[in-house]
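In this section we walk through a basic example: taking a raw amino acid sequence and producing a predicted 3D structure, encoded as discrete structure tokens. The instruction is simple. Fold the sequence below.
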Amino acid sequence: MKILRAGILGCGGIAQKHVQAALNLKSEIELVAFCDVNETNARTFAEQYTANRATTFSDYRAMIERADLDVLIICLPPFAHTDEVELAAARGIHLLIEKPIALTSELAWRMVNAAERANVKTQVGFMYRFGAATQKFKAEETGALGLFSARYFCNSLHAPWWRMREKSGGQLVEQAIHLFDTMRFLCGEPVSVYSRQTNVFHRDVPDYTSEDVSATVCSFANGALGVIYATNGAIPGKWLKGWHVVAQNLVADFSDWNNATFTRTNAQPPSIENIAATQDAFTLQLQDLVNAIRTNGNTRTPIREGARTLDLVLAAARSAETHTEILLDAD
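The resulting token sequence is shown next.
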């Protein structure tokens, strides 16, 4: 069985998670190239993770052309996406791309079209879909879904680019997008969205144009509601995420993608099950991509899913700008 040759584009913090996932799959994946606009970062990765066996680049076009890759793992910040997906797809290179895949719907769907036209396998880094608790919920007979609620709380200035809406898309687009994708994965497609987004805590911070408080309501065709609220003004040094689903036969309280409490309400007295796991969602999503490549199958989160979730959060941003409810495409 051929070991797949993989390259990393963007050698920052999140890339370390994907490198570790590749190392966990060393019988399937070999890291042969690293690329970063600051080539020192790429060299550091090559030294730390491959004992300098991997080739380093500062130009992604050169890596795509010369590194003979089977897989490209894209870990760029939102504003840095250009034509890397189109170039890689044209060379038959399969892709794992971090969220959000772009800052505009136009670029996102160009990526989708390029990947699908080339028939390469793709995976978007929505790792919540690979959690043990998430998968357990998908297998349940829940009955009609009524309510999804979620929060994303942190308190950090993050990188300078993150604070600038024009580079990050804002907290909802860059961070809370995980929860919107989880809602879509568990509950299906919403038909409308209404959002309010404000800057309460960082008005005096230079170049801080992102929202730091938001509340968003999504409506579903059956009347169900999704409520997602986020802030960058909570507890310093902590990232607090959780979500809840109320369905006809089940109430599910998730503390993260691996851990949840399920209360089955279609029995008297209601039965309670605690799901607790430690499985590595980053490794599982990369393994899922490898399996799709080897079997010519489908991944759990192809790039089309990344574009659809991006369109949802961009619609929420438009709603906040216009103070109107945005109706969503049914397709």
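Looking at the output, two observations stand out. The CA atoms of residues 18 and 282 lie 7 Å apart. The chain has a mean pLDDT of 97. In the next section we compare this with other chains.
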